[in-house]
Amino acid sequence: MTCRVLFELVLMDIIMPEMGGYESTQNIRRLEREFNLSSGEKHFICGFSAMLTPKTQKKCIECGMNTIMEKPLHPSTLKQLLEENQRSTNQVAIENMSSKNVLFVDPLPNFG
After folding, report:
1. pTM
2. Half-sphere exposure of 27 (CA within 13 A, CB side)
3. Which of 22, 57, 93, 97 has the lowest tally of Cβ within 10 angstroms?
4. Is the dihedral of CA 68, 73, 79, 80 positive or negative?
5. Which domains does the chain have, with CATH numbers?
6. What whole-number distance in Å separates Cα of residue 66 and Cα of residue 43?
7. In a 3-state reduction of DSSP, which class is residue 67?
8. Rg, Å, the chain Cα set
9. What pLDDT, on a 0 to 100 scale, did the predictor assign at position 45?
10. Coil vs helix vs strand at 55
11. What is the per-residue pLDDT across 23-57, written as a single tens digit (0 to 9) for each?
12. CA 16, CA 34: separation in Å to the nearest integer?
């Protein structure tokens, strides 16, 4: 049985222990290719960094992220990002977003 879990938006922190955002994004993109996801099924990955520089922006795009945003991310910015990229929005969840109700997922393990 195959199970697909697709997310509307992945906020990918650039600097994480063990596996950083660049490598995690590359692994997600590799798995998308392996599972033959259509362009509409591919995850929208937004890099998320407290230190946004032109070099960081370039590296994020090169590793497969769709865009990058600077911390802290205001809920209205998140809503705009979702709308601009034709992703669904859950108004209640966005308006009530706080650190206690944001799901943080550990980076993907290295499957290769």
Report:
1. 0.71
2. 14
3. 93
4. negative
5. 10-74 (3.40.50.2300)
6. 9
7. strand
8. 14
9. 93
10. helix
11. 999 999 999 999 888 887 888 899 989 989 999 99
12. 25
